[in-house]
Design a protein that fits this description.
heterodimer; A: alpha/beta; Rossmann fold; globular; disordered N terminus; B: alpha+beta; Leucine-rich Repeat Variant; 6-stranded antiparallel β-sheet; 37 helices; 19 strands; 52% helix; binds guanosine-5'-triphosphate; binds magnesium ion
């Protein structure tokens, strides 16, 4: 009886379903670092990602399928091959990389235009906050023109993958939105 | 939903390939599902792999879509699914450019994956790495090479091997580790033992390591030698493929430097008794192929033991071993058939082997090693056998028999009976029957005694033959040969039956064939009946048949006998190459909308004997080439060349021969188109091309001697191999070797105005000669003015006077052979005996020259056709009899030669015996055969 109840409950909350989450952003933004921070809670040494890393993690009773795609110019065209069935995009920005804010903004808006991502929620990490001279979350938001985004739940969170700050807060927000909107 | 499902393609036995589009759709849905069902995906990938392995291809967009959906399976941690994913990535890498997207995922498995997937991951590295990423894998590869786990170590070695062309430097950095991997015997790790089963390591890592090591050191002879010494002596190599590889390295070394062979002889001897069959095969291959070109360096004992080893391998149960041994024996059978005679009993028992590849090979070898003594018994063996094999094998056998008929014309009766038997009783398709008919046509044209028997049987055959093409060929043959047989009317009946019973294609051929009998001298009564038959056919419903009948009637009833003969039983054909070029000149020069009729008299005519000579020569060359090929494939680093030596024998005229024929007719055409030579009249004969300089000289010159009725023209083809210098006013001065007794009178020469770098041009020097055969030698000097070229314009610099220079080239000799055309006779001995004038000459050559070289030289010098297969020296024997036949190009007078060649320690002695209708010709030729 308890079994039946819990499985009904599971289905209600979509526990059997795996949520697909993409981590995107320019190269060196800290995507891979964030992925493993989430999975094993530690900082790992990374190499530039040629292709992608994918890890499955459980978070608040949900199974997350997190895809970290490489951000190098040559790899960005392949992002779209992984858009299908995506619940949310985590866009990581290196807040100290002021020269490339425009590029980051362009890539972000280009991506969000894609049909397949219309229902996906967006979480932006203004990463590397531990560095001096990093732009604040609201400055990054302005650079990225986030206010322009309509018909989409989005949020920007200041983070430091190295120190582990902001990451869980951001993810909590994201899961709440997904639960509300998609399950 | 039913729990019982059945899918057609899931049963393993079903030989059907799954449908491509279904698989594609299934992949797209299954792989993108969430969560992934690992087991189902794995089965699906295996089906996809099966498709790909069967040569199915996906268009690029589909291949790309497949790749990306497969890449998504990396999300699933299941090891067996991973393995399947890696396999498919490797397969898809050929079609899709995007495999680099798997790089990070692969690298992660290489570092952190389980032992099970690690080796698969490493193996797929080779398809994703490129020049820029290869170095980043160096550390991973190196540590995998030294892994104690043999599969991981092997995977890394193989991947490194494939990385060589991409980034050799990366791989070089762990050549020490590779060297260690050769001797490090790696058993499977203990923890992998499942239950009682403990897999024995085959130590295949040794092979992979040695293969890689060889690639790294192959250009360094000394370290290869060291390598062989290191691994051969100690008993380190346990893996049989590694041993085979080591033998291949030895082969490589001795092929490069034959003098090394003696020092390996003991080792090779030792390997011959190795317990592995593959090792034995490889060693025998090395020994026999090396011996083919370096007989002196191989001790006869070693060779004999190698053949004995092959002999014993013919009796092992393993089919592949037998087959490999047969392949080696087959090559030997072409080079030195006498040395493998001891294998005949084993070969004979293999004729009945249940594996048809084996039995067919055995037969072809036996046919090749056949001697006069055993031919008829061989033929009776294959008569029993041939009806049981498939068409492909039948064709191979027929071809081998066909060669036999050329080699042993005196055995024609047995061969003919065999062919007729298979033609009439054998089941088989067009190709098979056509090959038989071709073989029969060969016998008819080259063995005159066989003619009537063969024709009669072909007549029987066409009464019940379903193939148009074959019927037409036979009808042609009957028309050509039938009128000259003792009983022509016999054939007329069969041909007429075709006219009544068959379709229009065959009727047309039959009309032509029939008309030829009207002129038969053997049975003059035929004329009347054929005319009345043809009149009846002139009402045939088919246009072509009717037209042919009407034309034939016209010719037959024409009162001028010469005309009828010329058109109905013409004794010559036109040389097609020459016809083609004259025709195309005619078409291009058309200035009066074809008012001037085409003049066929410029086209070279070929009489029947000449055509036969040409054909026989072509066949001999083919045989010869396939022998050379056999030797070459033996020597080509013992690698697996996809050759089938016996197939090469019949590959048709090789392009090289066509080239030389084309070249000859090109030279003749060029010559005839030169205004100055027009008054000289017809070109009677052109010699082979003789080279007058070393092939690597600055100016490469070769010569051709053209004979006309009262003139001789030397053509010097000159190639300027310099890069930046033009040659102006290139001429050749010819000085008689013996100026006091000069016979030929130089008329004029045509120089080349300018010869640019890397171009060829011709200088002609014309002489007047009497109508007889004139022989003379000339010293030649090339004269020219060199001018440096302006690289911008490719023209000489303005005002450059250049400077004059000369260059000595070899002498050119006009020989008796230059006046001879090769020609064919069916029964050499009779013709030789009947010719009236005899001449004998004796030569002693004090050079170290092989019998075969002497034979080749004589054939070139005399321009005669070697007959009865005497153009090949027997490998072991020191004596040889060469039979040659030709005709004077000037008068058509016949000449036959028998040359006896004996080789001794002092040199080679020749006794040439010539017979001819013309005594002078005979003496002249006999005195200049070498
Ligand atoms: N100071 C600081 N460094 C960070 C932070 N996050 C990541 N990094 C560093 O930034 C560098 C790049 O990080 P990655 O995670 O490899 O970047 P990526 O976005 O995955 O890069 P690509 O794979 O090339 O797209 C690494 O040296 C990280 O240690 C952060 O929050 N603060
Ligand atoms: Mg990364």
């Amino acid at each position: 009886m308890g079994n039946l109840f819990s499985s009904m409950f599971d289905r209600l909350w979509g526990v059997n379903k795996e949520l697909r989450i993409l981590i995107l952003g320019l190269d060196g933004a800290g995507k891979t670092t964030i992925l493993y921070r989430l999975q094993i809670g530690e900082v790992v040494t990374t190499k530039p990602t040629i292709g992608f890393n994918v890890e499955t993690l459980s978070y608040k009773n949900l199974k997350l399928n997190v895809w970290d795609l490489g951000g190098q110019t040559s790899i960005r065209p392949y992002w779209r091959c992984y858009y299908a069935d995506t619940s949310a995009v985590i866009f990581v920005v290196d807040s100290t990389d002021k020269d490339r804010m425009a590029t980051a903004s362009k890539e972000l808006h280009l991506m969000l235009q894609e049909e397949e991502l219309q229902d996906a929620a967006l979480l932006v990490f203004a990463n590397k906050q531990d560095q001096v001279g990093a732009l604040s979350a609201s400055e990054v938001s302005k650079e990225l023109n986030l206010v322009e985004l309509k018909d989409r739940s989005w949020s920007i969170v200041a983070s430091s993958a190295i120190k582990g700050e902001g990451i869980t807060e951001g993810l909590d927000w994201l899961i709440d939105v997904i639960k509300e909107e998609q399950l | 939903m039913s729990t019982h499902t059945y899918k057609k393609f899931e049963s393993g036995d079903s030989g059907d390939l799954p449908d491509k589009m279904t698989i594609y759709q299934d992949c797209m849905t299954q792989f993108n599902e969430s969560p992934v069902n690992a087991k189902r995906c794995r089965i699906l990938i295996s089906r996809l792999l099966r498709l790909l392995a069967n040569g199915e291809v996906f268009p690029e967009t589909e291949a790309t879509a497949l790749f990306f959906s497969i890449s998504k399976l990396f999300q699933h941690p299941n090891d067996s699914l991973r393995q399947a994913v890696y396999l498919s990535i490797k397969e898809l890498s050929g079609i899709s450019e995007d495999v680099l997207m798997a790089t990070s995922s692969i690298m992660k498995d290489v570092q952190n994956g389980s032992d099970l997937v690690k080796s698969n991951a490493i193996r797929s590295l080779s398809v994703v790495l490129d020049e820029s990423t290869a170095f980043s894998a160096e550390r991973m590869l190196k540590s995998a090479v030294v892994s104690k786990n043999p599969t991981i170590s092997s995977a890394s070695l193989v991947t490194s091997y494939h990385l060589l062309p991409i980034s050799e430097n990366t791989v070089k950095r762990f050549s020490n580790e590779t060297q260690e991997a050769v001797v490090d015997l790696k058993p499977f790790p203990q923890q992998d033992i499942i239950g009682d089963y403990y897999p024995n390591s085959t130590f295949i890592t040794q092979y992979h390591a040695l293969g890689l090591l060889y690639q790294l050191k192959k250009n360094d002879k000394m370290s290869l030698l060291k390598l062989v010494r290191q691994f051969a002596d100690s008993n380190n190599l346990k893996n049989q493929l590694a041993k085979v590889q080591l033998i291949k390295i030895v082969n490589e070394l001795v092929q490069r430097d034959p003098q090394l062979f003696p020092q390996f002889q003991g080792l090779l001897y030792h390997w011959l008794s190795n317990k592995y069959e593959s090792v034995q095969i490889e060693v025998t291959k090395v020994i026999t192929s090396f011996a083919a070109t370096n007989q002196r360096l191989v001790s006869p004992e070693l060779f004999a033991v190698a053949v004995q080893t092959l002999q014993s391998l013919l009796t092992v149960p393993r089919v592949t071993t037998k087959f490999a041994a047969l392949r080696i024996l087959n090559r030997l059978s072409m080079v030195s058939p006498d040395k493998i005679l001891i294998c005949n009993p084993e070969l004979e028992s293999l004729i009945n082997d249940s594996n048809r590849n084996v039995s067919t090979y055995a037969i072809t070898i036996l046919l090749k090693t056949g001697t006069e003594k055993n031919i008829s018994s061989l033929i009776s063996t294959i008569t029993k056998f041939i009806h049981e094999v498939s068409d492909d094998f039948k064709i191979i056998i027929i071809d081998a028999v066909r060669t036999l008929s050329l080699n042993f014309p005196q055995e024609w009766k047995a061969i003919l009976n065999f062919l007729i038997d298979v033609l009439k009783n054998g089941e088989g398709g067009f190709k098979f029957k056509n090959n038989i008919v071709e073989a029969l046509i060969d016998i008819v044209s080259f063995v005159p005694q066989s003619k009537e028997l063969a024709l009669e049987n072909l007549c029987d055959f066409i009464e019940d033959c379903e193939f148009n093409e074959i019927l037409v060929r036979i009808l042609h043959l009957l028309g050509k040969e039938g009128p000259f047989t003792s009983n022509p009317s016999l054939y007329v009946r069969h041909i007429y039956n075709r006219l009544v019973l068959e379709n229009s294609i065959i009727r047309s051929a039959a009309v032509v064939s029939l008309s030829k009998f009207a002129l038969s001298k053997k049975d003059t009564s035929l004329r009347k009946s054929i005319v009345s038959l043809l009149k009846r056919i002139a009402n045939d419903p088919d246009d072509e048949v009717r037209d042919r009948a009407v034309i034939a009637l016209q010719f037959i009833e024409n009162s001028n006998e010469r005309i009828s003969e010329e058109f109905i039983q013409s004794k010559y054909t036109y040389d097609f190459q020459s016809l083609e070029s004259v025709l195309s000149v005619y078409m291009n020069n058309n200035s009066d909308s074809f008012e001037t009729p085409f003049d066929v008299s410029n086209v070279r005519k070929i009489t029947e004997d000449e055509a036969k000579a040409l054909e026989l020569k072509r066949k001999q060359d083919q045989l010869h080439n396939s022998r050379l090929e056999a030797i070459e494939t033996c020597t080509a680093d013992g690698s697996i060349n996809n050759e089938r030596a016996d197939a090469a024998t019949y590959a048709g005229p090789s392009s090289a021969e066509d080239q030389s024929e084309l070249l000859a007719s090109k030279y003749a055409d060029e010559l005839l188109s030169i205004e100055e030579f027009k008054p000289f009249g017809k070109l009677i004969n052109s010699s082979n091309v003789v080279s007058l300089t070393e092939p690597e000289a600055e100016f490469v010159v070769n010569g051709v001697k053209h004979i006309l009725k009262e003139h001789v023209i030397f053509q010097f083809n000159i190639t300027n191999t310099l890069n930046d210098v033009a040659l102006d006013n290139v001429a050749v001065t010819c000085t008689p070797e013996d100026p006091d007794n000069a016979i030929l009178e130089e008329l004029f020469s045509i120089p080349i105005d300018r010869l640019l770098p890397s171009t060829e041009g011709a200088v002609y020097v014309a002489f007047k000669k009497s109508e007889e055969i004139v022989m003379e030698g000339f010293l030649n000097n090339l004269t020219f003015t060199t001018k440096e070229l302006n690289p911008e314009t490719n023209e000489p610099f303005e005002g450059d006077e250049g400077f004059e220079d000369e260059y000595e080239i070899d002498s050119i000799f006009l020989n008796a052979g230059d006046y001879i055309k090769n020609s064919f006779v069916g029964d050499f001995t009779t013709v030789f005996d009947e010719l009236p004038n005899e001449e004998v000459a004796v030569y002693n050559i004090q050079e170290n020259i092989t019998v075969q070289e002497v034979i080749d030289k004589i054939i070139v010098n005399t321009s005669c056709l070697p007959l009865e297969n005497t153009q090949f020296a027997q490998s072991e024997s020191n004596s040889h009899i060469l039979k040659l036949f030709g005709k004077s190009a000037l008068t058509g007078v016949k000449i036959a030669l028998i040359v006896r060649i004996v080789k001794s320690s002092k040199g080679v002695a020749l006794k040439a015996q010539g017979k001819s209708e013309n005594a002078t010709l005979c003496a002249d030729l006999i005195n200049s055969i070498i």
